[in-house]
Every structure is written in structure tokens, then in C-alpha cells.
Amino acid sequence: MRVSLKDVAARAGVSIKTVSNVVNNYQHVTPAMRERVQQAIDELGYRPNLTARHLRQGRTGIIALALPELGNPYFAELAAAVIDAAALHDYIVLLDHTGGRREQEVLVSQGFRARVIDGLILSPIELEAEDLRERTEHVPLVLLGERHYDLPYDHIAVDNVAAARTAVRHLIDLGRREVAFIGARRGHSQPAHLRLQGWREELLSAGLSVDDGLIATTEGWGHADGAAAMTRILETGRRPDAVFAYNDPIAIGAMRVLSERGMRVPEDVAVVGFDDVVEGHFGTVTLTSVSPDKEAIARMAVESVLARLSGKAPEPRRVWADYRLIARESTLGRSTQAGRST
Q1: Residues 199 and 179: beta-carbon distance below 8 Å
Q2: What is the CA 251 to chain-centroid distance, rounded?
């Protein structure tokens, strides 16, 4: 039998309105009254009908999250963080996989699911500004990632140039001078271009030469891509003493090749990744990585959607999420310092 607000009110000896105020987390309920109602809720096993609540507000209670690659550990961890952040507001998340393809990103952004969602969080790779200028759908849109569109949508990103410079500076501070960059892209992958820019800027700032022979492109974002790129650099006869990788899977693939070639990490080659995915914490050599604040990115994205729905949002804005470099064994070796943040 379904427990109703009336049942809870009777058990707690209060009005239905008081129970409703507690369920909806209204602030003016006294702590004693909140505890009394909560005890009745727990005893009866009451669960609010979230669907009905959203329908009364003219909403579906669903936010869509469109990501380029669900198999990528970073996006998997980000999706989990968005789901957790949405749940705090009684929302569920519908996942879309775009594959980083422009046509799919256009389809998602133009609102083909508009009838079943209240808002969209989109992490685009190939989407162009003109695609968004033609958008006629009124479902709130929040953009994630580093592609800059200069359009009236909330946009949450990490400063990739600054973060890349932090990673390269760490390597230079450790005495490394031949720093390779693995993960450059030929297409529109703006994050890769920005991280490459940060690599260049920090080398020049340190008075080191920028050697294009130490730049390796990849077709994808995975372990095999990193392994293939590291192999190509080594087969030219070059022996970098450090690697900054576009992301953690690429870094892990590169470390595999270094190990197979008899090169020690970090004694011979220090390695830094990007995204700080869980996989990098548990390898034979734990991975130093730039760690974006994924929980903050998720929280700000969900709150931006809900603020737009409520009509209380400020002008659309670009928000920079925090990041930090977490130094582990792939640059520090097996020492007591591994795991420290900078």
C-alpha cells in the first residue's frame, strides 16, 4: 500500500502542509518539527512522488547529458558526478553518446529530445558556433569543455592552457628538458590544441627549445593511441626524458611502450597525464595527472540548468572550474612525496 502525505501527517500529529514543507526542504520549519516529521517518514517508509511533483511544475524531472565518448574514463566519471549532482535536486539524467561527431552534436543541441527533458548539458567536440546560432529550441543548454563559442549559453570549462603549463612546469622543475607531447590532433579538438599551446608556452618560458619532433598526433583518446604515438617517437631515434600526454589513457599507453622498450618510469622518462581518472591511481607505476574538479563541474552544470528553468539565472557566463596537479610515482618515483598536490 502506498504511503501518502496524509498518513505521515497522522503519524507525526501535524498538518499535511507541515509534512509537505519538510519533504520539500523549506527552511522555515523548526529543527524539532523537522525531526518529528522525518521520524514518521522513516517509520512508514514514505517516498515522495517525484514525477507528480515535476509535472505540477510543468517539467519532466529529466536532464540530458550528451558526451562524446562514454568509454573514456574521464567522461564516465563526469557522468557519475552529474547523476549524483542531479539527484540532490530530485532529477534523473538521460545519457546521450555523440561520438564527438558534428551531426550528432547538432541533432542533440537542436532538441530532438526536447519533449522529454527539462535541460541539456552538452560536451561538444566538433560542433561549430553557427550550429548553435541556428538553435531554436528553448530547453536550457549548458556547455562543457574548452571550445569557445562566444554565444549566450552558460559554459563551464577548465583553463587548459594554464593546466598544461602547470604539468610541464612540474616536469621542468624536476630537471627534465626533452619533454614530448602526445595527443595532438589534426581536427577541431580545441582541448588538444590548447594543451599543446600550454606545452609550448611553458617550454619557451623556461628558455627551452620547442621541438616539433617531440609532438605526436593521435586519432583517438585511448590506450592504443598513446602506445602507437610513443612508439612513433622512439622509432625516430628520439629519447625524450619526459612525456606530457593529452589524457590519462594516452599516458598509460605510452608508459606501457616505455616499459616494453626497457625504459624506466620515471628514472628514464617522467610521465604526466590529464584528467586524473581512477585507473591511473592503481597501475604498477601510479600516474601523475592534472585533476579537474569533476564534482564541481557537475554541480555547476546542473545548477546552471535549474537556474535557467527557474528564471533566476544571471546573464550567460563562462565559468572556470578548478584543477590541481597530483604528483605520483610516474614523476616522483616511489617516495613519500607521491600523491602530493601542487
Answers
A1: yes
A2: 18
Question: Where are the extended beta strands (E) located within 140-297?
Answer: 141-144, 154-157, 179-184, 215-217, 242-245, 270-274, 288-292
Cα gap 192→194, rounded to integer Å: 5
CA 41 to centroid of chain Cα atoms: 36
The answer, yes or no, to whether the previous bond of 266 is cis (omega within 30 of 0) is yes
Which of these, 91, 92, 95, 93, lies nearest to 108 by C-alpha position? 95
Q: How far is CA 222 from the centre of its chain?
A: 16
320: which DSSP letter?
A: E
What confidence tens digit (pLDDT) does each residue in 27-37 have? Answer: 678 888 888 88
Distance separating alpha carbons of residues 67 and 96, to the nearest angstrom: 6
CB 230 within 8 A of CB 258: yes
Global pTM? 0.80
pLDDT tens per residue across span 200-258: 999 999 999 999 999 999 998 899 999 999 999 999 999 999 999 999 999 999 999 99
Of 307, 319, 318, 302, the closest CA to residue 120 belongs to 302
Q: Are 217 and 228 in contact (CB under 8 A)?
A: no
Tell me the Cα Rg of the chain.
24
* CB neighbourhood size of 311 (10 A): 6
For residue 231, which of 211, 207, 209, 256 has the smallest C-alpha distance? 256
Give 287's DSSP letter. Answer: P
